[in-house]
Amino acid sequence: MKVLVAVKRVIDYNVKVRVKSDKTDVDLANVKMALNPFCEIAVEEAVRLKEAGTATEVVVVSIGSKPCQEQLRTALALGADRAIQVDAQDQLDSLSVARILQKVAEEESADLILLGKQAIDSDNNQTGQMLAALMDRPQATFASEVVVEGESLKVTREIDGGLQTLSLKLPAVVTTDLRLNEPRYASLPNIMKAKKKPLDVKTPDELGAQLSAGAELLSVEPPAERQAGIKVGSVEELVDKLRNEAKVVA
Amino acid sequence: MSILIITEHDNQSLKPVTLNLVTAAQQIGGDIDLLVAGENAQAAAEAASAIAGVRKVIHADNAAYAHQLAENLSKLVVELADGYSHILAPGTTTGKNVAPRVAALLGVNQLSDISAVEAPDTFKRPIYAGNAIATVKSSDPVKVITVRGTAFDAAEATGGSANVEACGSVHQHADVSFVGEELAKSDRPELTAASVVISGGRGMGNGENFELLNKVADKLGAAVGASRAAVDAGFVPNDMQVGQTGKMVAPELYIAVGISGAIQHLAGMKDSKIIVAINKDEEAPIFQVADYGLVGDLFEAVPELESRL
């Protein structure tokens, strides 16, 4: 089974984002960038499938300008076998990304395509579903457990009401949720080894992917700030405030 | 303009978020139709037809739609899409599962989790875990949108008398099947629809201690939530998680107990009307967003709270 993992370069999870003063976007100048946390979980799951002898090869792909090669190298250091950078503008819309991934998946004859459920920058939560639709293949989003059973997958999904289990025939698309696994740290020898692993660069044109126009970003503003309220000295005072000031308790 | 809303339901009753979507659709403007796709979902279709402001209800009933699998539901929606300017789905796990599939099949992009309607083609949506709000304009011929339910008021559940039209189309993807589900059973209100939510964090110490919160919840008619830390620690199941990657809530009253207030948690609850924080660490960031903060031991404060309510 060949596994394709799509990954995205995003602002580091721990960085507090700030909106630019002209409100055109958030300020990403000189900000630490990293592998999107959900993508990291997807890479980890693929590597575990390889270690279990289920996956034969793990190919990792990212779409963006040259710096996304850093995140591809991170994925290689975590255990992916080779990488593909599709050279395109950063912040491409989800449909364009899905169309590019469809071409890569076809070219690679991938059996399982793993993605994070969402990127922590745009918070879209779309690409995996779009890719599955374009390929007319089954999907399992928000996966918390993936079990390979021959030519099928049994996937447990985290849904609003609890857990749901689906059976999918391969090829299939799976998007990862937080509790699927805990990604490992890349060891120094593996980071060194990753530098020698193959990394191909392709363009959307070479792949024959047609790009779409995304929604136009008119402005970005900081959210309305909440003012810190008061500290109360006792539970009695708290209940009094809730009853008589906020009037949210009868 | 006309708007199609993909409703979420359990075949018996509609999810309350449907009413918030109707309000979002009214703000966009135009005729509003509701799709109820399920199996033996007559009761849900009838509830949909009673919502004020609905033109018609399309009811597709077949085993293929029993669990609203995205593969099947998306093809049904695409078949029905002709003539609609907007297709709305709730920003729930079901809505997020199906809407992007619909958009991709229609060859358009999808707007996720809108929190405000500025114009029929322009919307606000949170990005970066709610740390920035983007205003985006779509030029796609049909706008496929998921809606953050808590950002819109609920429409009236009664007063309408829309026609229910049966739709016999069946789309069944051969390569996906439903195996089973484990749904949390609770007599308490659903987290995203509750007017009061009490949540516990790592400070609760273990799952048994959530019983303290349950007792308060029973007195207030509240739903019980949790921070990611509490879920990751195994105290409570994942469906209780409030935050960036869990559920978004905006109740009248949110009580955070033993929750420090990580940015990812705040993203899921900071639109609550009144926030109460109970935490022994007076430096905890949760106090920066709390209307009323109580610094103290939750194991003393929560039982006392229960007894005083």
Could you explain the architecture of this structure?
The complex is a heterodimer of chains A (250) and B (309). Chain A is of the alpha/beta class and 250 residues long. Chain A has one domain (2-224): Rossmann fold (3-Layer(aba) Sandwich). Chain A is 28% helix and 30% strand. Chain A has 7 helices and 13 strands. Chain A has helices at 37-51, 68-78, 94-108, 127-135, 188-194, 204-207, 235-244; strands at 2-7, 9-11, 33-35, 57-64, 82-87, 112-116, 139-149, 152-159, 162-169, 172-176, 199-202, 216-221, 230-232. A 9-stranded mixed beta sheet of chain A has the order 9-8-7-10-6-1-4-5-11, with helices on both faces. In chain A, strands 2-3 form a two-stranded antiparallel sheet. The longest helix of chain A has 15 residues, at 37-51. Chain A starts with a strand and ends in a 6-residue tail after the last helix. Chain B has 309 residues and is an alpha/beta fold. Chain B has 2 domains: 2-167, HUPs (Rossmann fold); 191-308, Rossmann fold. Chain B contains 8 helices and 16 strands. In chain B, strands 5-9-4-1-2-3-10 form a 7-stranded parallel beta sheet, with helices on both faces. In chain B, helix 3 crosses helix 4 and helix 5 packs parallel to helix 8 (298-308). The longest helix of chain B is centred in the first third of the chain and has 14 residues, at 93-106. Chain B is globular. The termini of chain B are far apart. The mean pLDDT of chain B is 95. At the A-B interface, helix 3, helix 4, strand 7, strand 8 and strand 9 of A face helix 3, helix 4, strand 5, strand 7 and strand 8 of B. Strand 9 of chain A pairs antiparallel with strand 11 of chain B.
